[in-house]
Design brief:
This protein has one domain (2-119, 153-216). The chain is built from three helices and 13 strands. It has helices at 2-6, 30-36, 43-46; strands at 20-21, 52-56, 59-64, 73-74, 88-105, 110-120, 125-130, 134-140, 148-158, 162-166, 174-180, 186-198, 202-216. The strands form two sheets. The chain has an eight-stranded antiparallel barrel. A hairpin with a 4-residue loop joins β5 (88-105) and β6 (110-120). It is globular and about 55 Å long. The termini are close together. The model has no long low-confidence stretch (mean pLDDT 94).
């Protein structure tokens, strides 16, 4: 770790939709594309998806964090085909928060899509050490500072794309998407989702993604 602390922090600039898949933005196809990913949700994953619902002035809302049922999904091409592929040491090269919003107005059956960068972290650094059973995360507020341990969790990978991090019991796991891109970088996406709708008028799906991309350290 000392070698990493003294080494120069690397950052990469990637498109805001990098390694994400979206439903086709047409009224007829959107639901079909969204429902396609239900096949990857295991009983263990579904047990973690406890959302909050409410209504105010005729606007119905539903909120879930972290969510495994998002309209934006990590590209299936990044699936983890061998769990041993993630074992090792990784350093962050991209740390950002992005909002993706799809809205439809029923009267004209038109879908509106908006993507917005909320934050791009360029100062703080992160180092991830993964064994066959533990995720150990270390962080530093600024380049050159010593890393401090942020978390040490047990983990499971399910359906080759869901990362479950937990302390004592997997029943209380936090769920993220995990994958490896064609460049060999480790991607971990966590999503907060909110659905807002007025019956018969419009519906809006918003996903706020925290994306961490790591480069293997040798």
């Amino acid at each position: 770790m000392q070698k990493i602390e003294t080494g120069k922090k690397e950052t990469i600039d990637l498109p805001l939709d990098y390694a994400n898949l979206f439903p086709t933005p047409t009224f007829e196809q959107w639901d079909k594309d969204y429902n396609y990913y239900e096949r990857y949700l295991t009983p263990d994953i579904l047990r973690t998806q406890m959302g909050l619902a409410g209504e105010h002035n005729g606007i119905h809302t539903w909120w879930c964090m972290p969510s495994a049922r998002t309209h934006v999904q990590l590209d299936t091409a990044t699936m983890i085909t061998d769990n041993k592929a993630i074992i090792g040491n990784w350093r962050s090269v991209c740390n950002r928060r992005v909002s993706y919003t799809d809205s439809v107005v029923y009267s004209n059956k038109k879908i509106y899509r908006n993507t917005k960068l909320l934050h791009n972290e360029t100062e703080a650094d992160a180092f991830l050490s993964i064994t066959d059973s533990k995720f150990n995360l270390y962080g530093a507020d600024k380049p050159g500072e010593k890393f401090k341990r942020v978390a040490s969790k047990s983990y499971e990978i399910q359906s080759k794309r869901f990362l479950m991090l937990y302390g004592i019991s997997a029943a209380s796991a936090a769920v993220s998407f995990i994958g490896i891109d064609k460049e060999g970088r480790l991607i971990i996406n966590s999503y907060m989702v909110e659905e807002r709708k007025v019956e018969g008028t419009y519906i809006t799906y918003q996903a706020v993604m925290v994306q961490m991309i790591y480069k293997r350290q040798v």
